[in-house]
C-alpha cells in the first residue's frame, strides 16, 4: 500500500528540506521555487508558475509527482479546449451499441435501459476527472494561457472545491485534492480570479553555478569545464536580446550535442557546428555569428 | 513564536504598502499570506519575503515593486506608504477631468446637455489639439461612447448551428432520448470571437496635444473589447495599460494611466519600443493575428531602419496594422519623417487621428475592417 501523498507532504518540514528531496529526484530548485512548492503541498493550493520558456516549469511538476510517488496527470491546454476534452465525455458509440443490443434482446423496460446507458462504464474520464478520482495525484495544467478565457472560468470552479457534477451520475468529489501545478508562458493575461486561487511564482533562469550543476546532473558525460563553458555562453546569449533566448533545455541540448560530437571544449569551430542546438531561430543564429563567436565564448 | 497580533498587524501594514505601490494585494491575498506563514518561520526574513511574494504578487511587473516595498519596509525605515505620483502629472497629461470640475459644481455635466446637435457636429471635426477645456470634456465624453469592438474571427470551438458539420454528441443524445430512433441530425459550426485589438499610443512630447484623446480612445476600446483588447503606451518606455484602462469610469482610468506612464512627453524611440513590445508581448501571442493600431506621428529620434525592420515583423505577426497619425489631416501633409517613411510599407491602413470624427472612423475601421480610409 502506498502512503497517502498528504502524509508524504507532511513529512517535509521546511522548504530547505524540500530542496533536498527535489535534488534527490534530479531537480535543482532555488529557495523561491522550493518555498512555492512547499506551500503548495502544505496549503493544498494550486501553484501558478510563470516564466520564460525552458526555465523548468513543467519539470518542477513532474519532479513533484515523482517525489510524492503519485501519478502525473497532464492537461495540455490549447485554443478550443472544452469540458468534453478536459473533464469527461460519454462514449456515444458504445452507448448506441448497447441500446441496439438491448433492443435486439427485446428489453421492454425503458427506465432500466436509460439507467444502464449512463453507467460509469460508458464514461470516459479526461484529465481533470481522472485527477479527482486518483488520490494521490499531481495535476499539471500546462500552458493555461493557450486555452480560451471561458475555460479559465470553468477551471476556477473545479479548483475551488475539487468536485465535478455529472448530471447523469451525480457529484464526484476528490477524496484527497490533487496537487495542482499550472504553467503559463504569458502569451496573454490570465484572469486575476484564477491567479487569486493560486500561489504565484515567477521562475527565473538558473544562476551560473546552478546551471552548470543541472547540466552535470543530467548529462554525466559532460566535463565540469565544458558545462561551465556552455553555461557561460548561454548566459551571454540570454542577455543578448534575441528573438528566442535559450532556456535550460537549450543548454542541455547544446551540451549533449557537443558531447555527441566528441568535443572537449567549446571553441568557435565546435560552437559554429552546434549552434542549431542552442539557437533555434535563423535570425538569432545569423546575428550571433555576425558578431563573432569568439566574443560569445570569451572568458568562461 | 512572537505575539501573533503584532505579526498580523505587521503583515497587514506591509500589505498596505505593497498595495499602494500598485500590486493587487487584496484582502483575500493578505489572508493567504498569513496562512502561508503558519507553515513557515515568521522570524526568518527570507520566509516572510517568499510568503508575501508568492501570495500577494500575480504578475512579473509586480515583482520589482514588491522587492522595493519589502526592502523599504523591513530594512528598519518607518513604514511609509509610497507617495502617489504628483498630481501635476495627472493635470498635465489627462487635463480633461480636472479642469472643468475646477470652474464650478457639475459644470462638466451641464455642458453636454446644452450643446446643440449642430455644435456637436462642428466639434466632431475640430482638431482635438486646439480645444478649450469645456470642449475637451465634451469630446472626452463622446469618445467614451465609441464602440470599437473588433471584427470577428473563426475559432476552434464549436457551437450548435443550423448548418455545418454533424455534431455527434448532440445527435446521439437526441437518439438516446428517442429510444434509439434517429430523428434529426444535429449540426455544429465553428464559433466566432472578436479579434484581439492592440493599441499602442505614443505619449512622447510631439504627441502631447493628442495623447489624452487617443488614450481615451484606447480606454473605449478596452472597455468595449472585453478581454480581447490590450493597450500600451510608447515613448521612451513601453508600458502596458490594459489593467489601468479597465476601470469603467474614464476619469479613474485616465488617472490610473497617468500614474502608470513614466515617460510622459519624453522623446520617441519607436523602433526600440516596438521591438520591446514584439519581444515581450507580440512574439508570444498578443500581436499574433490581432488588429494592431499604432497612434503616433512617426517622429522617430532613433534608428528609422530599426523601426522599419520591427514594422515588417509586426506586419508578419498581426492580422492588420493600422497607423493613426494626427498630422495626416493637415493640408499638405506628406509622410516624410524618416520613421513614418520606414513604417508605411508595412501598414495596412494609414489614417488620421486628430478629431472626434477621425477617431470614429478609426473605431469603424477596427470594428469592421472597412475599406482603406
From TrEMBL, chain A:
Pfam families: AAA_5. One of its GO terms (molecular function) is ATP binding. Gene3D superfamilies: P-loop containing nucleotide triphosphate hydrolases. Residues 43-216 form the AAA+ ATPase domain. InterPro entries: AAA+_ATPase, ATPase_dyneun-rel_AAA, CbbQ/NirQ/NorQ/GpvN, P-loop_NTPase. Transmembrane segments: none annotated. It comes from the Bacteria. Signal peptide: none annotated. This is MoxR-like ATPase. It comes from Thermomonospora umbrina.
UniProtKB/TrEMBL annotation, chain B:
PANTHER family: BLL5662 PROTEIN, BLL5662 PROTEIN-RELATED. The lineage of its organism: Bacteria, Bacillati, Actinomycetota, Actinomycetes, Streptosporangiales. InterPro entries: UCP010256 (IPR011195), Uncharacterised_CoxE (IPR008912), VWF_A (IPR002035), vWFA_dom_sf (IPR036465). This is VWFA domain-containing protein. SUPFAM superfamilies: vWA-like. It comes from Thermomonospora umbrina. Gene3D superfamilies: von Willebrand factor, type A domain. Residues 194-360 form the VWFA domain. SMART domains: VWA. It holds the Pfam family VWA_CoxE.
Amino acid at each position: 500500500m502506498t502512503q497517502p501523498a498528504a502524509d508524504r507532504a507532511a513529512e517535509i518540514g521546511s522548504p530547505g528540506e524540500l530542496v533536498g528531496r527535489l535534488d534527490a529526484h534530479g531537480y535543482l530548485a532555488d529557495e523561491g521555487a522550493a518555498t512555492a512548492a512547499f506551500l503548495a503541498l502544505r496549503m493544498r493550493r494550486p501553484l501558478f508558475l510563470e516564466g520564460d520558456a525552458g526555465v523548468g516549469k513543467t519539470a518542477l511538476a513532474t519532479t513533484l509527482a515523482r517525489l510524492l510517488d503519485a501519478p502525473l496527470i497532464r492537461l495540455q491546454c490549447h485554443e478550443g479546449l472544452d469540458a468534453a476534452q478536459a473533464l469527461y465525455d460519454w462514449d456515444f458509440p458504445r452507448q448506441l451499441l448497447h441500446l441496439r443490443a438491448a433492443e435486439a434482446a427485446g428489453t421492454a423496460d425503458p427506465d432500466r435501459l436509460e439507467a444502464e446507458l449512463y453507467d460509469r462504464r460508458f464514461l470516459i474520464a479526461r484529465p481533470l476527472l481522472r485527477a479527482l478520482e486518483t488520490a494521490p495525484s499531481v495535476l499539471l495544467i500546462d500552458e493555461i494561457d493557450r486555452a480560451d478565457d471561458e475555460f479559465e472560468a470553468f477551471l476556477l470552479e473545479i479548483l475551488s472545491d475539487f468536485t465535478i457534477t455529472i448530471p447523469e451520475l451525480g457529484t464526484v468529489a476528490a477524496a484527497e485534492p490533487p496537487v495542482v501545478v499550472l504553467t503559463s508562458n504569458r502569451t496573454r493575461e490570465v484572469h486575476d480570479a484564477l491567479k487569486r486561487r493560486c500561489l504565484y511564482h515567477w521562475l527565473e533562469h538558473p544562476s551560473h553555478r546552478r546551471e552548470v550543476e543541472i547540466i552535470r546532473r543530467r548529462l554525466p558525460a559532460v566535463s565540469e569545464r565544458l558545462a561551465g563553458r556552455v553555461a557561460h555562453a548561454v548566459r551571454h546569449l540570454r542577455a543578448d536580446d534575441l528573438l528566442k533566448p535559450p532556456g535550460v533545455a537549450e543548454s542541455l541540448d547544446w551540451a549533449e550535442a557537443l558531447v555527441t560530437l566528441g568535443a572537449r571544449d567549446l571553441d568557435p569551430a565546435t560552437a559554429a557546428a552546434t549552434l542549431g542546438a542552442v539557437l533555434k531561430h535563423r535570425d538569432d543564429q545569423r546575428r550571433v555569428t555576425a558578431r563573432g563567436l569568439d566574443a560569445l565564448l570569451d572568458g568562461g | 513564536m512572537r505575539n501573533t497580533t503584532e505579526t498580523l498587524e505587521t503583515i497587514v501594514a506591509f500589505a498596505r504598502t505593497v498595495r499602494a505601490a500598485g500590486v493587487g494585494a487584496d484582502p483575500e491575498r493578505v489572508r493567504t499570506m498569513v496562512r502561508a506563514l503558519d507553515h513557515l518561520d515568521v522570524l526568518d526574513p527570507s520566509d516572510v519575503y517568499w510568503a508575501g511574494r508568492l501570495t500577494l504578487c500575480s504578475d512579473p511587473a509586480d515583482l520589482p515593486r514588491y522587492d522595493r516595498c519589502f526592502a523599504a519596509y523591513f530594512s528598519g525605515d518607518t513604514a511609509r506608504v509610497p507617495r502617489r505620483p504628483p498630481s501635476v502629472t495627472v493635470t498635465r497629461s489627462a487635463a480633461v477631468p480636472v479642469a472643468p470640475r475646477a470652474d464650478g459644481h457639475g459644470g462638466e455635466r451641464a455642458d453636454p446637455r446644452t450643446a446643440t446637435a449642430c455644435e456637436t457636429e462642428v466639434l466632431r471635426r475640430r482638431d482635438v489639439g486646439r480645444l478649450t477645456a469645456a470642449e475637451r470634456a465634451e469630446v472626452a465624453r463622446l469618445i467614451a461612447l465609441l464602440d470599437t469592438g473588433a471584427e470577428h474571427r473563426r475559432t476552434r470551438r464549436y457551437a450548435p448551428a443550423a448548418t455545418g458539420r454533424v455534431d455527434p454528441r448532440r445527435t446521439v443524445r437526441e437518439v438516446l432520448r428517442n429510444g434509439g430512433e434517429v430523428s434529426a441530425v444535429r449540426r455544429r459550426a465553428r464559433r466566432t470571437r472578436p479579434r484581439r485589438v492592440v493599441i499602442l499610443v505614443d505619449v512622447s512630447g510631439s504627441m502631447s496635444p493628442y495623447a489624452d484623446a487617443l488614450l481615451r480612445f484606447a480606454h473605449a476600446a478596452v472597455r468595449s473589447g472585453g478581454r480581447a483588447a490590450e493597450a500600451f503606451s510608447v515613448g521612451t518606455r513601453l508600458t502596458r495599460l490594459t489593467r489601468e484602462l479597465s476601470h469603467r469610469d474614464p476619469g479613474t482610468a485616465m488617472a490610473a494611466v497617468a500614474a502608470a506612464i513614466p515617460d510622459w512627453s519624453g522623446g520617441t524611440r519607436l523602433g526600440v519600443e516596438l521591438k520591446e513590445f514584439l519581444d515581450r508581448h507580440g512574439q508570444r501571442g498578443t500581436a499574433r493575428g490581432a488588429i494592431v493600431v499604432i497612434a503616433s506621428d512617426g517622429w522617430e529620434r532613433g534608428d528609422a531602419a530599426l523601426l522599419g525592420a520591427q514594422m515588417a515583423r509586426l506586419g508578419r505577426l498581426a492580422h492588420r496594422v493600422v497607423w493613426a497619425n494626427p498630422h495626416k489631416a493637415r493640408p499638405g501633409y506628406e509622410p516624410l519623417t524618416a520613421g513614418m517613411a520606414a513604417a508605411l510599407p508595412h501598414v495596412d491602413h494609414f489614417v488620421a487621428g486628430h478629431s472626434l470624427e477621425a477617431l470614429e472612423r478609426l473605431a469603424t475601421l477596427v470594428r469592421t475592417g472597412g475599406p482603406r480610409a
